[in-house]
Design goal:
47% of the residues lie in helices and 11% in strands. The protein is α/β, with parallel strands linked by helices. It has an eight-stranded parallel barrel, surrounded by four helices. The longest helix has 27 residues. The structure holds D-xylulose (XUL) and cobalt (II) ion (CO).
């Protein structure tokens, strides 16, 4: 049985006119000593591609999907089959899911877990048959009304216990399916108003929750990487894991930084008022870069549009950070992106992923060339050259103090700054993008 009327997607190169072919993603092509497949570790997000239907706050689903006629557990089963046909046709190595994307909730937690068990067994078989692996799974602790006040930061201890049970099951699922990471994204972990919120208790409870997750992972032998995915807002007004810097400070305060890294998403960065490369850089210099959710936002809109990434400029700078990080480790490039509501044909799912994957392949190639040439490294070395000798070298060595620096400044009447030459740099960066 076939769900998609599309052939396997293969690399055909830039000259091809076939829209169902990769133009840049040649999975076995070696770039800086690794294949493109090894560098990018591409993943498909189950929630957008299999579960989402195109509804928005103003209108119903628009998507035409081969599984539209099914419901309940039958729908979940058909989606699994369609999912693996899709992954296999795209020829990508990974996928990611929330528990509630793959299996419907039952009337009780017990029934919900039973539904999940049925689907996880199917996923396991399909993974074995196809070779597609689980990059990460996570718990949806934001859709159900019980999470109205949060999950691990709720004001209701019964909900906290439910959330713990849900993550416990999620970690068991991760072990069962060999997930390489486990993600926490706290859509409802935040607050609306301080007028009724104990902020300190909520943050302490969140840390307690993460410590219990670490302990349970150890108990059941889950060795994947724990990841936290920062986002500043939406659906919560003040989300606790606001951005990379806030999340790292939280993890350090509560002694959790050894156990977690960050899963950084492009559109979450822009909502926080940062560029994606800023978030990646902050994580990288702190040894916390774990994985990425690949998408892009619309700068004219103030919400998470989760578009497929096609901005070569931004993706090149993101891939530069990943290469400088020595790779993405056990993480990957998960397309947390959805086709537009108006792109409702099943084929659009292929066009969207091909566009995103080719953009990352191109970004990888341009970033690799920049690194081979030492392009940014030379610019930065020259710009900070005053710290390589003289008083600058003393500052770096820690052999100076305010007395010595004052003495130096008093004797130095001719401070001269140099141009940062940003326009020249941007023009040269464009040339890299046009020529690679
Ligand atoms: C929401 C978002 C989530 C996480 C996983 O903005 O990005 O889908 O990636 O919960
Ligand atoms: Co995400």
């Amino acid at each position: 049985m076939s769900y998609f009327n599309v052939q396997n997607i293969q690399f055909e190169g830039r000259q091809t006119k076939n829209p169902f072919a990769y133009k840049h993603y040649n999975k076995s092509e070696v770039v800086l000593g690794k294949t493109m497949e090894e560098h990018l570790r591409i993943g498909v997000a189950y929630w957008h591609t299999l579960t989402g239907g195109g509804s928005d706050p103003f209108g119903a689903d628009t998507a035409i999907r081969p599984w539209s006629g099914y419901s309940g557990l039958d729908l979940a089963k058909v989606r699994v089959e369609a999912a693996f046909e899709f992954f296999t046709k795209l020829d990508i190595p990974y996928y990611c899911f929330h528990d509630r994307d793959v299996a419907p909730e039952g009337g009780t937690l017990k029934e919900t877990n039973q539904n999940l068990d049925v689907i996880v067994a199917m996923l396991k078989d399909q993974m074995k048959a196809s070779g597609v692996k689980l990059l990460w799974n996570t718990a949806n602790m934001f859709s159900n009304p019980r999470f109205v006040h949060g999950a691990a930061t709720t004001s209701n201890a019964d909900v906290y216990a439910y959330a713990a049970a849900q993550v416990k099951k999620g970690l068991e699922t991760a072990v069962e399916l060999g997930a390489e990471n486990y993600v926490f994204w706290g859509g409802r972990e935040g607050y609306e108003s301080l007028l009724n919120t104990n902020l300190e208790l909520e943050l302490d409870n969140l840390a307690r929750f993460y410590h219990m997750a670490v302990a349970y992972a150890k108990e059941i032998g889950f060795t994947g990487q724990f990841l936290i995915e920062p986002k500043p807002k939406e659906p919560s007004k003040h989300q606790y894991d606001f951005d990379a810097a806030t999340t790292i400070a939280f993890l350090q305060k509560y002694g959790l930084d050894k156990h977690f890294k960050l899963n950084l998403e492009a559109n979450h960065a822009t909502l926080a008022g940062h560029s994606f490369e800023h978030e990646l850089r902050v994580a990288r210099i702190n040894g916390m870069l774990g994985s990425i959710d690949a998408n892009q936002g619309d700068l004219l809109l103030g919400w998470d549009t989760d578009e497929f990434p096609t901005d070569v400029y931004s993706v090149t700078l993101a891939m530069y950070e990943i290469l400088k990080n020595g790779g993405i480790g056990s993480g990957g490039v998960n397309f947390d992106a959805k086709v537009r509501r108006s792109s409702f044909e099943p084929e659009d799912l292929f066009h969207a992923h091909i566009a995103g994957i080719d953009t990352f392949a191109k970004g990888l190639k341009v970033a690799a060339k920049l690194i081979e040439d030492g392009y940014f490294e030379r610019i930065v070395e020259e710009r900070y050259s005053t710290f390589a000798s003289g008083i600058g070298a003393e500052i770096i060595a820690g052999t100076t103090d305010f007395h010595k620096l004052e003495q130096y400044a008093l004797a130095n009447d001719t401070i001269r700054n140099k141009s940062g030459q940003l326009e020249r740099i941007k023009a040269e960066l464009n040339e890299y993008m046009f020529s690679v």
